[in-house]
Amino acid sequence: MKFLDGQILENSHFYSLRIHYEDTDIGGIVYHTKYLNFIERARSSLIRLLGFPAEKFLKLNQSIVVKNINISWYSPCSLGDCIFVKTNLIELKNASLCLQQVIFNEENNKKLASADVKLCFVNENMKVIKLPEKFFYVLKTNLPN
């Protein structure tokens, strides 16, 4: 399972998945909200691939949360389609980071949706905190913007 969490190539993270019945309506078209699930899965896999699984932060009473998201849909995908999410770091600050995540159809490289996602770290009281130093460094090194 070498690529279970995707792979980083040329400063981008790539995460592939197949559309299952649970992702679709009765006509086999993907629900619009499922695209949020796909990009969340890709983000979680990227962070795990970088060596910082969510459970590691939870043990420190820290969490990564979505502060803001702006998503656009371009084309539908259907049951059985293979898709991939391409993630790029577009901004890295002391207390937040912004990612651009684009979903493509693997067969024809057609853009299906894109999202700009702002993330931050919070403590157990849901107060925004500075990004952990090691995490900041690994992001900056592996996904330079």
Can you put this structure into words, describing what you see?
The structure is a single chain. This protein has helices at 34-49, 54-59, 133-142, and strands at 7-9, 12-18, 62-73, 82-92, 96-105, 111-123, 128-129. It is α+β, with helices and mostly antiparallel strands and 145 residues long. The protein has one domain: Thiol Ester Dehydrase, Chain A, CATH 3.10.129.10. Strands 1, 2, 3, 4, 5, 6 and 7 form a 7-stranded antiparallel sheet that branches. Strand 1 (7-9) and strand 2 (12-18) form a beta hairpin. The radius of gyration is 16 Å and the shape is globular. The protein starts with 6 loop residues before the first strand and ends with a helix. 21% of the residues are buried. The mean pLDDT is 94.
Give a quick set of tags describing it.
alpha+beta; 7-stranded antiparallel β-sheet; Thiol Ester Dehydrase, Chain A; 22% helix; 145 residues; 3 helices
